[in-house]
Amino acid sequence: MADEEISLRKQKSELADLKAGNAILEAELTEKLERLGAEISLVFDQDENRADCVMNAKALLADAAGWDRRVREYAADELLELANDWSQDMDEDGGAVEVTREQFVERMELESIEVRADGSFQFWFGDGDLFYGHSIWVSGDLENGPNDAAMEG
């Protein structure tokens, strides 16, 4: 009976440690996300190793502003021409108003970041009406940076 009681106490202690660790982690990640100036979601795939996802999220968010800039600039490089094809803004003469690279970057609205155990990520943005309300995503990995971008929806 004593062995079962010790085992049960150990399980309760490990569960309490896990809950405390999750609370600390949540507070730490929330603080880093708030530095981006937006309320966004941080998403981990439930089928992946959570510890690796958390480690990669911490690495990504250690330079949150830098990654945000890199990802936005990559999206602008890849999608600006398409955005101008979709331009719904008209000037006084009835012609399309061209969106600049800076305007493209500023209009993107960060909504969520998906982080995977292998170090890959996907940033999701609202399009700021660049594509009539569609989403923009940029994927990549921590080692090589952004490597793909698209408009979706």
Keywords:
single chain; about 150 residues; alpha+beta; 2 domains; about 50% helix
Give a brief rundown of this model:
Helix content is 50%, strand content 22%. By secondary structure, it is an alpha+beta fold.
Could you explain how this protein is built, in words?
This protein is α+β, with helices and mostly antiparallel strands. The protein has two domains: 1-34; 40-152, no CATH class. Helix content is 50%, strand content 22%. The chain has four helices and five strands; from the N terminus they run αβαααββββ. The chain has a five-stranded mixed sheet with strand order 1-2-3-4-5. The radius of gyration is 21 Å and the shape is elongated.
Helical content (DSSP H or I, runs of 4+): 40-55%
Shape: elongated
Number of strands: 5
Report mean pLDDT, rounded to a whole number: 80
Major sheet: 5 strands, mixed
The H/E string reads HEHHHEEEE
Helix tally?
A: 4
Describe the strand arrangement of the main beta sheet, using strand numbers. 1-2-3-4-5
Q: What class, by secondary structure content?
A: alpha+beta
Radius of gyration from CA coordinates = 21 Å
User: What percentage of the residues does DSSP assign to strands (E)?
Assistant: 15-25%
Total individual domains: 2
First-residue to last-residue Cα separation: 59 Å
Q: Any low-confidence stretches, pLDDT <50, length ≥5?
A: 13-21
Which SSEs are present, and which pair or pack?
Blueprint: H1 2-34, E1 41-44, H2 50-62, H3 64-86, H4 101-107, E2 109-115, E3 120-126, E4 135-141, E5 145-152
Parallel strand pairs: 1-2
Antiparallel strand pairs: 2-3, 3-4, 4-5
